[in-house]
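User: Hey, my collaborator sent me this sequence without any context and asked if I could get a structure. I don't really work with proteins. Can you help?
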Amino acid sequence: MKLLVGWKVVAVMALLVLQVCVAAFAQEEKRQQYLGATIQSSQTGQTGAGLGSTGMTAAKPGQADGMGNPQLGGERRSLYRLNRSDVVALSFTLSPEFDQTLTIQPDGYVALKDAGPVLAQGFTLEEFRLAVRRAYTGYLHDPQVAVALKEFEHPYFVAGGEVGKPGKYELRADTSIMEAVEIAGGFTHEAKHSQVLLFRHVNDDLVEARVFNLKRMLREKSLGEAFQLRPGDLVFVPQNSISKIERFLSKPSLSMYVSSTQF
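Assistant: No problem. I've predicted the 3D structure and written it out in structure-token form, which is a compact way to encode the shape of the chain:
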């Protein structure tokens, strides 16, 4: 009799434990469902993420689909750097007697009043202002100077070879190598469309050379691949096939294609 009562007690306790476990499991399942709905709702409100897109993450600032976007703070255009023949005006806040207008000489220097020569070529306006400030530190106490660019050479490109109107042209807006050829009068009947050369200034002694197949671009209508020019670029359309050209050339080597005085 005692044994039977003991089995009943054990059975009741086991049933109670089972009920507790089932209740706990149901509560945990409801919590997970609630959390899942919350996460999904949060992702739906994010830029670039929607329903069922739990594997997506929001794009990084300044980028879209992994590509830099200048308008969103990605890649940015570099600041203008002074060049030979540029004209700059210096204005001294506390010492107007030192105000002056200077032309950058062929060697890249300017001759400051009472302070001697200072390098200007290759500097941004802010870098040049700091150089002028340092030059006058021995003459003036805490010199305060502002720099304004008065005259400068407008950006340009040169087109030569088998084009209708070889010459030097202003680079007023974003221009592709295809557009540059059209600006220069288009191809002549003897032009080698498939081997158009682009020469880009690297430094005073070195030029980078690239070859473009504009004939293929026109045939396949892939004008979006056309290379964008930079100020000082030289576009040369040959008459005959060019078997080989080095990636980097010395400036004297350009004489094989065009007069180096044009570049």
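In plain terms: The longest strand covers residues 145-151. You can pass these tokens on to your collaborator as they are.
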